[in-house]
C-alpha cells in the first residue's frame, strides 16, 4: 500500500465513545429505552439532560446514575409545550428524540385528539428540539441527532395510524436534518427497533389482546414476532448501544441512515 492510501491515525477501537466533553438531551428518559440511553451516555461521560413528564421516574433515574462518569440532570417537561421543548434543547451537543406513546385502535374508532397528541409529541416536538439544538451544534461544528424511530418508521401495521404516521414523519425529518447538518459536522440518524421489552410494549400487549380478541401470550408470539426472524424482544440496552455508536467517532460518516434492529422484520 502506498503512503497516500495508508489509513490515517483515526479513532482506535474501544469499549465505546468518550463523550466526556459533550452535553446530551434525551426525551422520554424516565421510560424503558430513554432510561437505557441516558445511562449509556452517562457511562460514556456525557452530561445528560433527562426530559420526561414523569418527574418521579426522573428522580429514580438520577439515583440510578449516581457514580457514573457523566452527570444526569432531571428536566421534568411535557413535550406538548413546544416552546419549552425548543428552549430545553439550547446548548446541547447530542439530541436523542425518544419520547413516545401508542394507541392501538382502528382508524374509524381512533380519537382525533389522541392522533394530534401522538403527532405533537413524536414529530412536532422532535422538530422543535432539533431547531433549538442546531445553533449551538453548528457553532461548535459538531452534533449528533439520534431519532428513536421504529420498524414502524419503515413498515405499517393495522390499528397504529398515529404511531406509523409519526414515525414515517420522523424518518423524513431525520433525513432533512442530515442533509442540512452535514456541512456543520452534524449527523442525524434513526434507530429502528422491533419490539423492545419496555412498559410501552407491555401496555400494547394488553391493548392488542383486546383488539384481536386473543391472549397476551399469543399477541407476543403470533402478532408481535410474526414478521421477526429472531423470535425474541429487543432489550433497551441493545438500543442504547446503537445510540452510543451513532454518537461516537466511528459513525461520523453515517448520516441520513435508518439503523434497523428488528430481528430481520424489514428483510422480508
Ligand atoms: P415507554 O412508554 O417506556 O417510555 C416513553 C417515555 O416517554 C415515558 O417515560 C413517558 O413518560 C415519556 N413521554 C410520553 N409522552 C411525553 C410527553 N408529552 N412529554 C414528555 N415525556 C413524555 O416507551 P419505550 O418503549 O421506552 O419507547 C421509547 C421510544 O422508542 C418511543 O419513541 C417508541 O416509539 C420507540 N420504540 C419503542 C419500541 C418498543 O417496542 N418498546 C419499538 C420501537 C420503537
What are the SSEs and their pairings?
Layout: E1 23-27, H1 32-43, E2 47-52, H2 55-65, E3 72-76, H3 82-88, E4 94-97, H4 112-140, E5 143-148, H5 161-181, E6 186-193, H6 199-212, H7 216-224, H8 236-247, E7 258-261
Parallel strand pairs: 1-2, 1-4, 2-3, 4-5, 5-6, 6-7
Helix pairs in contact: 1-8, 3-4, 4-5, 6-7
This protein binds nicotinamide-adenine-dinucleotide.
Pfam family, one: adh_short_C2
Organism: Streptomyces malaysiensis subsp. samsunensis
GO molecular function, one term: 3-hydroxybutyrate dehydrogenase activity
Keywords:
2 domains; SDR_fam; oxidoreductase; 268 residues; 3-hydroxybutyrate dehydrogenase; seven-stranded parallel sheet; 7 strands; NAD(P)-bd_dom_sf; binds nicotinamide-adenine-dinucleotide; alpha/beta; 8 helices; Rossmann fold
